[in-house]
User: Fold this.
Amino acid sequence: MNLGANRFTPAETDRLVLAASPRGRAVRACVFMLAIFVVWLYWAVPSYAGSELRSKSNFSNAAAQIKHPCRRSSRRTGRRCKIVQRLSHARRTTASGTWAWTTGPGRTGPSGQDTPPPLPDGAPHVLYTDIVSGPNSGGEGNLGAYLSIFGKNFGSAGLGGTVRVYIGGSEVGAYVSMGASRGRSDVQQITVRPGSLGNPAPGVALPIKVTVGGVQSNTDLTFKVNPGRMLYVDNAGGNDATAVPGDITRPYRHVQAVNLAQGAWGAAQPGDFIVLRGGTWTDVGRENYFMRFIKSDGSSGTAPTGASGSGPITVIGYPGEDAFINAASSTHSGGGLSGLNGINYPNAGKWVVIANLRIEGGGGDGPISQEIFGDHWRIVNNELSATTAPSTSKMGGITGNGADAHWLGNEIHDIHGSPGEAHGIYIDGDGSYEITFNDIHDIFNGNGFLMFANGGNGSEVINNVNFHHNSIAEVTKHLINVADGSAGNIAIWDNVARGASYAGVRFNTIDLHGMKLWNNTFYDMNRANNSNYGALTNDWGFPSDALDVRNNIFALTNGTDYTSGSVDFGGTIGTITHNLWFGGTGTASLDAAPLFGDPLFASAGSGDFHVAAGSPAVDAGDAGVTALVTSDYDVTTARFKGIAFDLGAFER
Assistant:
């Protein structure tokens, strides 16, 4: 209708006449009554699957923003409360029925990256990047930093042809490589050099876009052009005395020496990249670590502002080469790469990136330790092990605490050490954490994922943890251990965890409030058949609002108890509903709406936990998880399909 010209076509005139006529008014009245009837059906009629009646509480508007205030123990003083923001502002599109998202303050994780919005089937998905800032000039060919982009549906070939990468609307200067990531085997990696990008203003966040055959990815992840130099290090042909920053033909020999003024570390400034060439690295830096992130003046990296001399200090492996840091316990009693105690060294161990390395860290602090108050770390796409750890080593593949921590897409495996005290990932103090797309397996002396703050690491509580889309397998203790000091704003969703000697999830905290355990799949727990453990185990008193446990699958293989522990799960402890229980004993009486039955996994023995069409997990979930559960473990499948959420980590 062309209202601007005040002229109407004949068809438009007919519609206007009809609308004004008695017949038109009658039609409008019928349409209005029909709409009321449809709304009544939606709210009043139960679904054919036998789930509870649809209600405003169960099918709330997904656009409602969920806020998670930072909670503190009364014992905890002296540090500012830091809040991890969540996904929000969701809506259902009426045309296609798929989820669409808008961006806003609630969309982001600790520093602007989280699970991307669902996209059309087959579209490329960008999930995370190793760096979020760096130079667009200098280094080989004057093309700047090495940026790796991780995601799915990138295809198997055609990089620079059918597969292209854009930053801020400009195509990147060079394509380096394409292949599998070091983390989850189903996640792909593309490495590029930014180049000039049309010379954008430094310090401005530019959207990253991948196109495959003309089909575009999400653009919610960004890269900032930030000044810095490429410091190449070669343990075969390098020479510290003749090295020149930015010149790959004149590399340094050492990453770090005992004398912190020497080697690439001695030359590094905030914003610089230390690039390790392939080979086995056994050098010893400060205090019998391979390296520690402290400069001679007690400083380290800074926030990337776009100004020269700002930005993280990045330690990264050269693309396509295997830079293996062999920090065995016999030669590196301290460990691999480490921050410092932020209480004693307040300006050290901050704004650090560690990416694309293979690290054996058998020393006391393990492969990577963020240490105490090690704020603003990105640990991305590394392979981490501790096969040489002695029985006295208490650590994790990644351990430590700090604000704005991103531990993304790493393979953590073969962790040995002190019995019961050497873990896959270990948060030991307060901060904010985005931990996702990691492959954690073969943990021989501890938990797959542990949160434990005993006050000796700078804090008595742990807040602000996102743990999602991870794989955990073959653990000699608990798959997930929510232990002492675990407190507020903790969310665990869309993970697959299998094969544990003890519990699937063990709780041992009196500080916990509103912890979300949503849409995870747990399988084959309590292999030790110990009566103290079950699928869920609780060993300490819970507050009345401790838990929010929905839409999980707990599948046991040996008839052990569904719940256990020295305290167990009696009384009022929060919301526990719509979980599927199989293969164990007990009534799962903690669950307000339990389901029982074989989940019909595709192939649990080979690690495929998709469910078959007849599974009781299909369309059986509670809708109260929409604030976080927007996709499934595969990421490329949006939640939900059908009439309701599926249970577990996968949506059929």
